[in-house]
Amino acid sequence: MYRKGQDLKLISIRYVNLPAGGENIAEEVTENVLDGVRKASEVYRKDSGRKSSKNRKPLKIAISGKGGVGKTTLAANLAYLLARDGYSVTAIDCDSSINLPSALGIREKVPPLSTLRQLIEERVKLPFGAFRYNPKVDDVFEKYSAVNESGIRVVVLGTIEKGGEGCFCPENAFLRAVLRHAIFSDDVLILDMEAGIEHLGRGTAKGVDVLLAVIEPGRRSVETLRRIEKLARDIDIERIAVVVNKYVECEGARAILDEVSKNYELLGIIPYDRCFVEADMEDVPPYRVCDLKPFEKIKEKLFEYCSKRPNAKKDRV
Ligand SMILES: Nc1ncnc2c1ncn2[C@@H]1O[C@H](COP(=O)(O)OP(=O)(O)OP(=O)(O)O)[C@@H](O)[C@H]1O
Ligand SMILES: [Mg+2]
Questions:
Q1: Three-state SS for 14?
Q2: How many CB atoms lie within 10 A of CB 281?
Q3: Pocket of ligand 1 (CB under 6 A)
Q4: CA 204 to CA 133: how far, in whole Å?
Q5: Which ligand has its closest atom nearest to the C-alpha of 275?
Q6: Which ligand approaches the C-alpha of residue 67 most closely?
């Protein structure tokens, strides 16, 4: 029974003796229940006048795009700027080629959560072949993450099984639970993803405020953008915005820019700058040595865009 003033917390969801194929339904039901709890918690927070660390809502940002376009560079620089503004920031590397920790200046090895087999078994598996769909993961954030020089907490998720929609295995249940935990938290969340967004289930995706698709001026990355947009729509992500990186002024690049800005919310353009290449070669976090002005503008536009209701015209191609 819920009593006024009490924090909302869902203790446990268990499914016992699932019939064959029941995993998909169980996962969907779990995510919907958790989405309900998330919404109820938001209402409760508003009613009780509780605020997060800053006046502005702590955004939950997913970053995706074709390989090599600059997702990690954007994730690291945004995380840095938001931490500098006073937000508590959690950055999660969801890419199988892990490089967010080094872009944030972390030297020690951060273990990918998907490799913690024993812990995953302990938390997810129940007797008689049953699974726990919302395992305890809050302590995992403390234990298996690193905090960088700006106070940004960095978590490495590791590889998720992509065996078809709703593929269920203990690792996926565990990683999804970690993402849900991050989405429920009061921290700004930055997810550095691959070209796919497989880590996000429908319920988790509902908590993502915006999907930032990074492109470079080139046809292949625009094609990837369309694919990402479709994936995002399928799981009901409402806001999709584009950042153009490595921009070099020329006719072809201008044409791509025009096309993209007609169909998508364009948050900003980052020029091609050797500084990023050199920072990467020297293994120095880009925010220490490169020009952050384009990223500052993107950050401001991001808050502006997320404060508005999703725009039906621009948000649907
Ligand atoms: N604006 C820029 N100008 C020049 N080089 C850049 C720019 N942004 C990023 N880079 C460089 O491009 C390379 C790829 O960047 P980054 O690692 O951020 O991309 P990514 O999309 O995360 O790649 P991956 O798909 O491999 O994870 C790096 O060497 C980075 O320093
Ligand atoms: Mg990357």
A1: strand
A2: 8
A3: 65, 67-73, 95, 97, 99, 245-246, 270, 272-273, 276-277, 280
A4: 13
A5: 1
A6: 1
pLDDT of residue 310: 78
Residue 240 has a pLDDT of: 95
Distance 73 CA to ligand 1 centre (A): 6
pLDDT of residue 314: 56
Q: Nearest 5°: CA angle at 188, between 310 and 237? A: 30
Residue pair 98/145 in contact by the 8 Å Cβ criterion? no
Amino acid in position 109 = K
Nearest Cα to Cα of residue 191 among 304, 91, 88, 56: 91
Positions in the chain short of pLDDT 50: 1, 50-54, 164-165, 313, 316-317
Residue 115 CA, ligand 1 centroid: distance in Å: 26
Q: Is the model's pTM score more than 0.70?
A: yes
What is the C-alpha R_g of the chain? 20
Report CA(68)–ligand 2 centroid distance (Å): 7
Is 15-307 assigned to CATH 3.40.50.300? yes
pLDDT value of residue 301? 96
Distance 8 CA to ligand 2 centre (A): 35
* Element at 64 (helix H, strand E): strand 60-65
- Output phi, psi for 216, to 5 deg: -115, 160
Pairing status of strand 146-147 against strand 153-156: antiparallel
Instruction: State the Cα–Cα distance between residues 28 and 35, nearest whole angstrom.
Output: 10
Q: Which amino acid would we find at residue 215?
A: I
